[in-house]
Amino acid sequence: MSIEPPLTVGLISLGCAKNLVDTQIMSGVLLTEGLTLAHDANHADIVLINTCAFIEAAREEASAIIDEMSAHKAGGGCRAVIVTGCLPQRYRGALAARFPQVDAWLGVDELESIAHVAREAAARPPDAPPVVLVSSQPKALFAPRIPQLAFSHPASAYLKIAEGCNHACAFCAIPGIRGRFRSRPVDALVAEARALLKDGRRELNLVAQDSTGYGRDRRGAPRLAGLLRALDALPGRFWIRILYGYPAAVGDDLLAAMAGARHVLPYLDIPIQHSHPDILRAMRRADTVRVLPGLVPRLRAALPGVVLRTTCLVGFPGETEAHFEHLAAFVAQTRFDHLGVFAFSPEAGTPARELPDPVPAEVAAARRDRLMRVQQGVVEQNNRARIGTTTEALLLHPDPTRRGGWLARADWQAPDVDGETRLEGLPASAKTGDLVKIRIVGAEGYDFTGVPARRPRGAIGSGA
User: Fold this and answer.
1) pTM
2) Which of 10, 24, 165, 167 is surrounded by the fewest CB atoms within 10 Å?
3) What CA–CA distances, in Å, run from 209 to 21, 88, 145, 174, 285?
4) Which domains does the chain have, with CATH numbers?
């Protein structure tokens, strides 16, 4: 009697790191319930596409991938296509007619159902309606069945500490997609972090829609400062980095916890979105108006050497040239270490879509480019100041372009967004996941070059 091999599932994860965590959770469900993960989505029985739907560009990317995999299925390349995440959550059953080859649509609350749905989708007759599992109001929290299963990098991992968002920013559709803010328990996060560290991860990046809101939804529970202290108590040598914070929520207790920690990097990702009070109020971020004037000096005083990443949104309805110039001057003066800029996208269901005085798309795009040029000047000055300094770096993998070289991230570089550091002169015993002391000897754009800190000065690079 022949035994049919287990179904294979090929994964395509789109969007942010938080989406990647959801893909990891679904993978754990699939593996623990008897399915197998394929190395390539093009060679799998089932293709699973975890989508983002935050802005139009993300939806266009998701639609293109769904069309591609639908054609793949129609040509006999797979048995089923499943779409999960933000896109089905936002549009519920409205996409079935647009994508008739899709066999199942799962929202953000249905991660634990993926194995059952995968089997059902693979056996679905061609004329049967698709499976649609989308909750009306997301409420779930998930713990990974296989905590050490992380797709980010062998030396690094994302630790999702909360889900949803309670902020009501006028431009943002996330609360409508992800639901109210809800924190995971400290004990569950410590257990997951311990498993990741045991598996060789040396960088834990804390992510949520608003990491600084952690614990506020749980009466009597620890806040982010308490979580940091619990994670910092874990043994070993590793980094903890906080991503996706909210400017007005960076309190003195959090700064004290960061300053007193062994493992927490002095790095804060706090999107300000804008600097002008008129625009911030229109964005429904009036609490940012209150804290912004003294925010960065306060952070730099509390955490000497703190690395600051932020995000700005230009082209918001009503933004005049004077408003934009205010933002450009603020960016030039504040000198953020890392900055991203987005042009406003009028999202359905958000208050900003109905605001008067829209900014033409071409003007918003031009302002985005202008602000990035301002930031480029800041980056060039910051980079020159870093040459000759020593810091710690996380080894990622050997550099394929240089024999004996390594690609790494300095402690001021978050994964995927802040560039990389190329290293030379490391010992033959160097391996992925090592944390090494380095000296910066050069910079180009957003990337750096370095050597071991103990290497004699002047060995490599004009800046040595």
Assistant:
1) 0.92
2) 167
3) 13, 19, 22, 8, 15
4) 8-133 (3.40.50.12160), 156-385 (3.80.30.20), 387-452 (2.40.50.140)
